[in-house]
Every structure is written in C-alpha cells, then in structure tokens.
TrEMBL record:
<dbReference type="GO" id="GO:0046872">
    <property type="term" value="F:metal ion binding"/>
</dbReference>
<keyword id="KW-0408">Iron</keyword>
<feature type="domain" description="2Fe-2S ferredoxin-type">
    <location>
        <begin position="64"/>
        <end position="112"/>
    </location>
</feature>
<dbReference type="InterPro" id="IPR036010">
    <property type="entry name" value="2Fe-2S_ferredoxin-like_sf"/>
</dbReference>
<dbReference type="Pfam" id="PF00111">
    <property type="entry name" value="Fer2"/>
</dbReference>
<protein>
    <recommendedName>
        <fullName>2Fe-2S ferredoxin-type domain-containing protein</fullName>
    </recommendedName>
</protein>
<keyword id="KW-0001">2Fe-2S</keyword>
<keyword id="KW-0411">Iron-sulfur</keyword>
<dbReference type="GO" id="GO:0140647">
    <property type="term" value="P:P450-containing electron transport chain"/>
</dbReference>
<keyword id="KW-0479">Metal-binding</keyword>
<dbReference type="InterPro" id="IPR012675">
    <property type="entry name" value="Beta-grasp_dom_sf"/>
</dbReference>
<dbReference type="GO" id="GO:0051537">
    <property type="term" value="F:2 iron, 2 sulfur cluster binding"/>
</dbReference>
<dbReference type="InterPro" id="IPR001041">
    <property type="entry name" value="2Fe-2S_ferredoxin-type"/>
</dbReference>
<dbReference type="GO" id="GO:0005739">
    <property type="term" value="C:mitochondrion"/>
</dbReference>
<dbReference type="GO" id="GO:0009055">
    <property type="term" value="F:electron transfer activity"/>
</dbReference>
<dbReference type="InterPro" id="IPR001055">
    <property type="entry name" value="Adrenodoxin-like"/>
</dbReference>
<comment type="similarity">
    <text>Belongs to the adrenodoxin/putidaredoxin family.</text>
</comment>
C-alpha cells in the first residue's frame, strides 16, 4: 500500500542566528547586542538585519545608502565569528574594501549560509568607529 508520508520528505530548513554588537558601549560599559534569526540560507546579511529591525546604518547612512547596490559602503560590518557561513567577498566588496581588513564586509553583498549549513554569525556594526 502506498503511503504519502513514507515517500515524501519534509523540507529541511537550516537556521542561522546573527548577533550584532553595537559600536559604542552603553552607560554600564558593556556593548549592546541585537540578535536575529533566519531560517534557510542564501539570504543577504543586510536583509536579515533590516527584517529584524537591527540598526545597520549610522545617521548619514540612513539618508545616503545605495539601497543594497554595493556602491556606498554605509553597511560595513566586521565579522567577529562565523565567517565560514558567509559567501566569499564579491567584486564590489573587493573594490570598495580594498584597503580594509579581510574581516570587513558589506552586508548588502554578503550572503549568510546556504541550504547545507547552519550556525551563528557575530558582526560588529560600524567597525570604522572602533577606537
């Protein structure tokens, strides 16, 4: 006898968590942290952050960003942990971030995960503000 449940596999969803450390410490000296979760992979880091209402831009970036085209640099983050879960740098990133550390990425060009992996990515927002 044919059983649909024995022949159909449930789709597999991979989960990714994104932890965003803010660039300036709070009054207590600790750095505020925002967290987001994304199901599946192949999603731009920028989209994960925006959809979860994680502040991405400084004041000027809110007005002057390119909307995800990889041409303004207002969405720069530093990857603290989980770089193996991200896509390689794009040509746009290589051009724009040529003299920046390898750990710096443009969120609008960085894809988090794929259908085969899952894990946690930790980013530092606005790394250019670090002292």
């Amino acid at each position: 006898m044919f059983s649909a449940s024995s022949h159909l596999q449930a789709p597999r969803f991979n989960c990714f968590s994104v932890v965003c450390v803010q660039p300036k410490p709070g009054a207590d000296g600790s750095y505020p942290v925002d967290r987001a979760a994304a199901v599946s992979g192949d999603k731009l880091l920028r989209d994960v952050m925006v959809e979860n209402k994680i502040e991405l831009y400084a004041a000027y970036g809110k007005l002057m960003n390119c909307g995800g085209g990889g041409s303004c640099g207002t969405c720069i983050v530093e990857i603290i942990d989980g770089k193996e879960l991200l896509s390689p740098r794009t040509d746009a990133e290589n051009r724009y971030l040529k003299k920046k550390p390898e750990s710096w990425r443009l969120t609008c060009q960085t894809i988090v995960g794929n259908k085969e992996n899952s894990g946690k990515v930790v980013v530092q927002r606005l790394p250019q503000w670090k002292k």
